[in-house]
Automatic annotation (TrEMBL):
Name the record gives this protein: Phosphate-specific transport system accessory protein PhoU
A Gene Ontology cellular-component term: cytoplasm
Recorded family membership: Belongs to the PhoU family.
Protein's organism: Longicatena caecimuris
Keyword Cytoplasm: yes
Cellular localisation: Cytoplasm
Length: 212
């Protein structure tokens, strides 16, 4: 019993370390959106390799726990949840990388676009941080409530798209598809954070829940 508890603790520490790094990537995205910096954007892109390494480490630790320690049901759920949460975090890191890559190759976007994107990112980061706190505290109530925050991110996304469509700047209208694709990364990051809430509920309660 002591052995499995130690393995679970090691795994959770790795998940937390991965989560902190993912949050930092998105915080850097906000910095680049508010004050364009090719250096910081490149740092975000390069940081994705570290996240991928951590996911592999968590998966290896989890497989070792499953293979050697025969965990009971609640411990088994914890191992499975950590694997899934690590996978979600890896995707969320990819979205930060995608935004940074877009900003590296793009000319400076209109201030209105950058402001909306930064606002979306800030709301997303707040949601992600609170979700990770729910993971640490095994807070099922918060895990049920937090997915509602994703609606605010989606609302900003749709609002900006409509503003661009009405915008007199023909260049921005032509670039609408690429700008929308960049912003979709933030929207999808929110979706994966909702998935983490689902995994928290499963980990604690053993119940499968789908926030859609």
């Amino acid at each position: 019993m002591v052995k499995i508890e130690k393995e679970l603790e090691v795994n959770e520490d790795s998940v937390k370390r991965m989560a902190e790094s993912v949050v930092q990537m998105h915080e850097k995205v906000v910095c680049v959106l508010e004050k364009p910096s090719r250096e910081i954007a490149l740092d975000i892109v390069q940081g994705d390799d570290f996240i991928n390494h951590l996911e592999e480490e968590i998966n290896d630790q989890s497989v070792r726990s499953l293979a050697l320690l025969s965990p009971v049901a609640s411990d088994l759920r914890k191992v499975v949840a950590d694997i899934k949460i690590a996978s979600e975090l890896e995707r969320i890191a990819d979205y930060a990388k995608n935004i940074a890559a877009f900003l590296i190759k793009s000319e400076v976007l209109e201030e209105n676009v950058m402001a909306y994107a930064a606002a979306m990112e800030k709301r997303f980061i707040e949601m992600l941080k609170e979700t990770l706190k729910a993971y640490e505290q095994r807070d099922v109530k918060a895990a049920f409530q937090l997915p509602k925050k994703d609606e605010g991110i989606n609302q900003l996304y749709e609002e900006l798209k409509q503003n661009l469509l009405r915008h007199p700047n023909e260049t921005l209208v032509v670039e609408l598809f690429e700008i929308s694709a960049m912003l979709r990364n933030i929207e999808r990051a929110g979706d994966h954070t909702k998935n983490i809430c689902e995994h928290i509920i499963y980990m604690v309660k053993g119940q499968h829940y789908d926030f859609g």
